[in-house]
Amino acid sequence: MKRPVYRLLGIFSVILGVIGAFLPLLPTTPFLILAAYFFAHSHPEWEARLLAHPQLGPAILAWRQRRAIPRAAKLMAGCLLAISAVGAWLWLTPPLAYVPAGAGVLVLGWMLTRPNA
To answer: How far apart are CA 97 and CA 115, in angstroms?
Structure first.
C-alpha cells in the first residue's frame, strides 16, 4: 500500500520541482530531494535516474551525505528571493507586500547555516 502512495508523492514532488525551476518563490532542489526519498522507497530505478542526473544529482547527494547546499544554489536563491521581495514591494499592498521579504529572510537565514557543497 505504501509503494503506490510513495510513487505518487515522488511524481508530485518532481512536478513541483520542475515548476519551481520557473517560479522564484517555489524551490526546485528541496522537492527533488523529497522525490528521491519517495522513489527510494517505491521505485529505486527512478531514484537512481535522479541521482545520476548531471545537474540535479550532485545537489541531492550533497544534501544526503553532508546536509550541504551548493554555494551557487544559495546565490541563485538569494537573487530570486530578492527579486520576489522587490516585486511584491512594488505591486502588492501592505501587509501582503512584506510577506515575500519576510519569507526570504527566514529561508536565506536557514540556508546560510548549512555547509557549502
So the answer is: 31
